[in-house]
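Deadline looming. Please check this record:
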Amino acid sequence: MVEERYSKWLNHENLASQYKPVLEAMNAEEKNDAFYTTIEFGTAGMRGLLGPGTNRINIYTIRKATQGYANYINENNGGEAGIAIGYDNRHMSKEFAFDCADLLAKNNIKSYVFESLRPTPELSFAVRHLNCFGGIMITASHNPKEYNGYKLYDDKGCQLIPCLASQVIDKVNAIEDELAIDADCTEEQKKLITVIGKDVDEEYYKNVLSIQLNPEVKKDIKIVFSPEHGTANIPVQEVYKRAGYTCIPVVEQCSPDPDFSNTPTPNPEQAGAYELSLKYAKENQADLILVCDPDADRMGVGVLHNGEYVVLTGNQSGSVEIEYICSQLQKQGKMPENPVMFNTVVTSDLGEKVASDYGVTTEKTLTGFKFIGEKVAKYEKTHEKNYVFGYEESYGSLIKPFVRDKDAPQACLMLAEACAFYKEQGKDLVDVLDSLYDRHGTYEESQVALSLAGEAGAKRIKEILANLRKDAPTQIGGTKVVRSEDYKECIIKEGDTVTELTGFTKSDVLKYYLEDGSWIAVRPSGTEPKCKFYYCIKGASKEDAHNKTVHFQKAMDDLIAK
């Protein structure tokens, strides 16, 4: 199958000239990795390495996905409402975006394409603002420079949930020859393409500014901000300017550079993303460091605490956001009836405890903000519950749901306000976090990602999950497993009792609850060739929680090595 696919591409009359020498230079391993499968939709759409091949992101795999989506749009009479299209700073993002618009036009579908790079949350906003049938975002989010990707959105500005995505995937898979698709449309069809920009920006900025809970707070703080060469640069700086905050941009990382030349990594989950920001912060004695990923849906946070900068995890910054938002809503008498917060099954318990303290219920979803967006849409329709906050452990949150995806510009504004508010009280955000530990227990949350690339890696990831199911652990590191949840088999085990796990789409996730109040979860990444291990470890103190985390991580290493 690999040789057949490879030969088809190499000899196809429509193959772009730049791809042929790349294909000819491939060794056996590279050839296998590029053609052993067709690139698939995961938790955040389609994402992969740039280059020729059926398992790569290129003009042909993008066209195949877009033609399948076009067939779905026309089958559901969505062509008149149209599709909003956005893109980030990566290699080929703009080219892919405008090619998508041409291909949609060829299928007599309207599109609204941003004039230049924009954040993913603004694309989500544009879908609803323009009353579109859906949206396309060209981005690989926080992945390295070698990647690009493709996200699809529904009419609510939410990434396609599995039942809708499967319909599109069926249309995509029905296309046999991706290289035969062209995006040649007539001049008349070209008129179906509208280029958008500042008008949508203005509406988005107004909505972002509306999230402020204490707009008159004394803004006596300095913020070092980095967009990591991505789409957050203009929106975040503009919002700060209008709100009255002093923002010190990391100039070297403000250019939309697809090679991310001035950062070791564009991922705020990794320490390298903060290197230059930390230098700026020390030079300016900044109170706060905020770092966004390239498509501006994730935000990392650094806080000046006792003369040193402390980088918070996504779980920690999310918990601080919840505390600030809920305390202010309650104080101002603005807490809605039946308030609800959403997070995922791999998000820390701390945020749920903080929310509960203010009478806010928490509903869990699978990993992927589309599931939170789905919940938002449900309650917007039924009015059973009222949205207060949503977040994931992976550094993404949503303050107000005029966007239906993670929204870093919103998060940047809210964290700045919280920082300024607590500074007036003589506290920083680490002090706030420590007070949450005092009230609700101390947690250390971490994620360990086991990178396993290629066909062999994909097999190994499946093997790890299969072995854990076959030989389910009754204890981890000497601590009893009191409950386990299997989101693929949809079962809960507590001792000898087995019950049904309901309310979730089937997903290859395992979660183990330990006797000491900690839990550990395992899942394959939906966006990278990795198996991820999540730890939410409860301790008597920070030191105890950390020591237990190290212990449990080693125990899991030993467990999967068997």
About this structure: The longest strand covers residues 442-451. DSSP finds 18 helices and 24 strands in the chain. Residues 542-561 form the longest helix (20 residues). The chain has a mean pLDDT of 96.
